[in-house]
Structure prediction request, 411 residues.
Amino acid sequence: MQTKDLLQLSEEFGSPLYVYDAAKIQSQYTRLTNAFSKVGSLRINYAVKALSNISILKLLKELGSGLDTVSIQEVQLGLYAGFEPEKIIYTPNGVSFEEIEAAAHLGVQINIDNLSVLEHFGAKYPSIPVCIRINPHVMAGGNANISVGHIDSKFGISVHQMPHLLRIVENTGMNINGIHMHTGSDILDIEVFLYAAEILFDTAKHFSNLEFLDFGSGFKVPYKKDDIETNIEELGKKLSKRFNAFCNEYGRELTLAFEPGKFLVSEAGFFLAKVNVVKQTTSTVFAGVDSGFNHLIRPMFYGSQHHIENISNPKGKERFYSVVGYICETDTFANNRRIAEIKEGDILCFRNAGAYCFSMSSNYNSRFKPAEVLWYEGKGHLIRERENFDDLIRNQVIVEFDKSYELVSKN
Ligand SMILES: *Cc1c(COP(=O)(O)O)cnc(C)c1O
Prediction:
């Protein structure tokens, strides 16, 4: 996918616009499966919350992926996209028991991360196999908001609660068919990951009926030049070897599962926005675009640094800019960034806009959500229309007031 293609898509479909490169999603998928080619049975469950457009789900289905879901609605989206229930794992946290029951009735793999829920579910549905999410208390990742394995985390059943967990399983006679961990996003250090994996193996030994071990995700992808990324190939080599040895000890071939979101779609995504104003102040030059944190919240929310390119003037002389959005409160995409000289009307391209970008967008300031386009074999395909005014008022129930401030309900 080239700069000129992106520029042409912004003309064809307008701005702001999300564009996803199918070839990049495919190559990341293949990279991951190649890294673990020595494992007899591998399952990739794409984490739907990263980017949940149905066409993206269908693309991943064609590649052979399953799905990792965290809400009943994501389960429904997956089924709607044509996934078999057996290819979907449901890993909720803090949801109602009724929602877990509803997912179980849809036939998806249930993953439980709380002892009280496990006890309740086991007592009521002893014959439905359940995976348990453990918390190995291994700290991975840089940003506190996306680290989920640490001691204060709300996720998973602590490995220190094993005796209690085993008692519940014994008392209910339930069938534990998988063990899961997800230590959080942005794993830099493979040794830390392997250390957490040992804890998962230790836990697994307590259960005789396992079918799979799920190592979650959290692979780090590069955001800017020279950024460190998880070395998937090295992780594949080391973990595959250890996993195969474990299966030997265990006496049965298990499936090794991962559930990457960011790794599969982050780099495939481009966010295009048009520069409305260039504003020289006493301290900086602002480039204000026709979007804001309503469409791409990660810089404001996590401090993430998306590389920004001026695709209307890619060869221009570089200058320093603060790139800001139009939301009426602090709305900064980037501070003091070197970008090729910007003129009003230019199109800026934000990189790594595939994961947690559109899926976290909102209508704040009563703006429409952008359109989404899939770039597939040299052509752009619209996969979500830009919102319009009807979308803003669709669910509103309007009451009227008469001249004496009486509410005159139409219902
Ligand atoms: C969010 C999430 C993932 C995906 O994480 P990435 O960092 O996007 O790869 C995987 N598993 C679970 C349970 C999650 O909540």
User: Anything to note?
Assistant: The chain is about 30% helix and 25% strand.
